[in-house]
Model the fold of this input.
Amino acid sequence: MNNTKMVLPVILCGGSGTRLWPLSRKAYPKQLLSLSGERTLLQDTVLRLSDIENVLPPLVICNEIHRFIVAEQLLEIGHQNAMIVLEPYAKNTAPAVAIAALLTDPDTTLLVLPADHHINNTDDFYRAIIDAQKASDAGYLVTFGAEPESPETGYGYIKKSKPLLTIGAKCFSVAEFVEKPNLEKAMQCVASKEYYWNSGMFMFRAKDYLAELKTCSPQIFLFCEQAVVEAKKDTDFIRLNAEAFNQCENISIDYAVMEKSKKVAVICLQDSGWFDLGSWATVFDSKVKDQNNNVINGDVYAQDVTNSYLHAENRLLAVVGVSDHIVVETADAVLVAHKSASQDIKKIVSNLETHKRAETEFHRLVHRPWGSYEVIDEAKNSKAKRIIVKPGASLSLQMHNHRSEHWIVIEGTAGVTCGENQFLLEANQSTYIPAKTKHRLSNPGASSLTLIEVQTGDYLGEDDIVRFEDNYGRQ
Done:
């Protein structure tokens, strides 16, 4: 692709993905999962830009609790120069895009992409970007609309108006935006052939978006400007001023700017095979099907099953005599739902949150900047974890008020600090960490350290940690 102007990809990576529970959870949401191939959705989104010329390293906006996972996933695909901006609060897309525009040169073209999309035909996607660059150079705020394949109620819609032939045959001014409709309205939109699915992808110059934001939603502009002016660099991350950013309205870019602006254009994605992987039904639609029109992942036995999505992670999943179902098995939860109800899975998550169920936040396998741990057994006053520490990494110097810990090394070398004592443990060796004792675990070796931790005490919650030192800036 030929373009003399610089393009800054802005990757929106802050969603929670509740409709893809139980795979997607607060601590490890859908954009960080591998749902469409070997790589994660975030990695696919970034690598999809590799054929665009004059593209800058991406600017990724994410939740603070995901910062180390995001950084590691970008590093895995060779993007160690990405700018990672931490949102202190979830405020939707209008403030997030404003932050990106304020952090770059005013003449830079922003290509705003959610991190949870799947695109089959990248050639059509690149064609649309070329048209969008022409429109953005002419001062338009460009949104991308996908040719609807069905009356989908999980997407918003964009009604096209007159063609902007000086830009391209598939570029139009916008007549209206339609919020996620009911089925009757969605059927009307598709039948009229005047509406596109609203993809949530955008392209415009930074200065043009900020000018429209000043006019349409001036308070958001002022608070975002303050948040950037008072932002601080923290190792590889940019921390916004939390107090200023928190005053922003929680609002989408469509409501805050695009529906109010007179400078909006829509570019048609006609043959891209675009999907917003926002529900299990759309994940199903994006996948190659077997002879029974099923999508099957993992150790699954299916008999007389059609038009279903079956996913097993930890054990044999046997399904008999169903059609149009979603069945997803994880280590600690199983979801069974009719495909037509896939939009309502977020109601289950909301209910579980009300009852303070940990299954909404964490998987059994929990990722940390130093490695990971997995709960392998749990009872009233005891818990067992498998802990893996990366080479050269270490946990914080910490203390627990309510629990003691027993460490048994399975593989590798453990560096142990326990009170005033420091020593090494090899495979088949163990140690005991009393409650209220400062301690630290590290891996001085060149290979991963694996150990089993057995906790005992009257309270075993993850919030019973008092940190004294930490290599990763955690409180």
Notes: The radius of gyration is 24 Å.
